[in-house]
Amino acid sequence: MKPMRHFHHKSIDRNSRRGFTMVIVLVAVVIVSIVAVAVFRTVRGHRDALRRAQWKVQAERLADAAIDRAILRLRGDATYRGETWRPTVDGVASSSSSGSDAAVAVPAMQANIVVQVKQATATIEITADVPNDPAHRVRVFRTVTVEIPPPT
Fold first, then answer.
1. Considering the domain boundaries, does residue 152 fall inside one?
2. Element housing 19 (H / E)
3. pLDDT given for residue 96 in this prediction
4. Are 60 and 140 in contact, with CB atoms under 8 Å apart?
5. Neighbouring C-alpha atoms within 13 Å toward the C-beta of 151
């Protein structure tokens, strides 16, 4: 009977080590998972910040282009009072911000142009949105006053 007790003691010791090893492995898995989630969130945050910075640059360029467009349209048509402009890029239509499978990712963009004319000057107000999505957009405002040349 002594050998059975001795054998039983080794079995308990071996099971105890296995249990301890399992706890260590589980703790390691939890730590690695926490680190992986933290890294993922950091990378996603940087990606979102970069995307917003790109949208801001695009919105600023869109606002500048909308001013040029309004000046040209006003010089060609004295009754021009603005529009909602949704430009395309090189003939590629803008996509929604939800994404698409297109090879060229062009965010939907929109510029609202309002022209107010008083005598020989016109005030042009621009609101440029990139993407054209109220939940995620970057909005840029521009206001310029230009002289309107007299009709010839």
1. no
2. helix 2-76
3. 46
4. yes
5. 6
